[in-house]
Amino acid sequence: MRFLRFFHPSNEVHLGLRHGDEVIDLTAAAERLNGRGLFSITGLLEEGSLDSVRVLADSAASDSNLVFQYRDLRLDAPIRDVPKLLALAGNFRKHIVESGFRAVNGEERITPQVFCKPPSTTLNGPGGLIHLGKNNVFLDWEVELAVVIGKRGRDIGDANALSYVFGYSVINDISERKFNAGMEGRNVREFDPFFDWLLGKWFDGSAPLGPEIVTADELTNPHQLNLQLSLNGDVMQSSNTSQMIFDIPQTIAYISSVLTLEPGDVIAMGTPDGVGKARGIRLKPGDRMRAEIEGIGVLENRIAGEYRS
Asked: Which residues on adjacent β-strands are paired with residue 50?
């Protein structure tokens, strides 16, 4: 199943189920059938059954007022009410090296490097603008596989971790690489470089997500997906999820040993090599990014505003 959220003619954002070129309006169908609309993936997950969605979709499929053409829709992020947006740093070996760090070999015992982005302000939708602000110096791209958690869990084992996954999407972890670099007379403390890096991940709209969430049963192997990012038509990143150092079960097990994963949590699985910092290319006004993952879809976003000296 392929879930998305779209801007309805009423100006509300509705939850939809995509079948090829058509999208069934689940929000309007639920309102008609049950007297209340279904607006979010998180709400759907809390109700706990995809069977009810299938019944709802089947009942709506023959009603032309509840079916839209996909090409005509303006999409929002497929999920907005995300409890936690977690992300992995350094989960592709070549990206570690291009970032200026020592190479990690297969024999070393290492742990995932996990950080957060504030979901309420960083999430952005397909086609959404990413605005340059007064603190931007060198904005960069990172295509990543997004894992959407489907049920609550703590201390989840590797063996059954994938059963906690609702589905997958595409995320672009937009990153400010030189936050605070232009500050004159700054006394740089020991941990400032880390915090500059971290806050460089937190700019408003810096986590475009979409275009839809593909349920886990639709993807035979999430660890064998091609992913790519193009800038203004030129390919910058091209890799495969098989190149991730930590796979999805290992990541879920590690994170859930620390905190409880909740329905709607999103985990971004790290980016491959080919980022702008390593190429000496920063995102500039008018730039168009096209992030794509095999079997999931294409996420496009544009840069707006100006760098300020």
From this structure: none
Q: Are 215 and 1 in contact (CB under 8 A)?
A: yes
Cα 275 off chain centre by: 17
Burial (CB count <10 Å: 0-12, 13-18, 19+), residue 103 = exposed
Cα–Cα distances (Å) from 20 to 5, 23, 41, 119, 171, in that order, read 15, 8, 20, 29, 22
Q: What's 35's DSSP letter?
A: S
Count CB atoms within 10 A of the CB of residue 21.
Answer: 10
Beta strand spans in the chain (E): 2-7, 13-19, 22-25, 67-69, 75-76, 85-89, 113-117, 123-124, 129-131, 139-140, 143-149, 165-172, 175-176, 207-215, 226-231, 234-240, 266-268, 288-293, 297-304
Domain with CATH 3.90.850.10 in the chain: 85-304
State pLDDT tens for residues 47-101: 777 888 988 899 899 899 999 999 999 999 999 999 999 999 999 999 999 999 9
In contact, 217 and 131? CB cutoff 8 Å: no
Could you please state the CATH topology (level 3) that the domain comprising 85-304 is classified under. Answer: Fumarylacetoacetate hydrolase; domain 2 (3.90.850)
Q: Which residues lie below 8 Å from residue 11, measured CB to CB, with a gap of 6+?
A: none
Rg (CA), the chain: 20
236, two tokens: 């910058």
User: Which three-class secondary structure state does DSSP give residue 156?
Assistant: coil
For residues 203 and 133, the answer to whether their CB atoms sit within 8 Å is yes
pTM assigned to the model:
0.97
**What are all long-range contacts of 197-200, with beta carbons under 8 Å and residues at least 24 apart?**
198/115, 200/175, 200/176
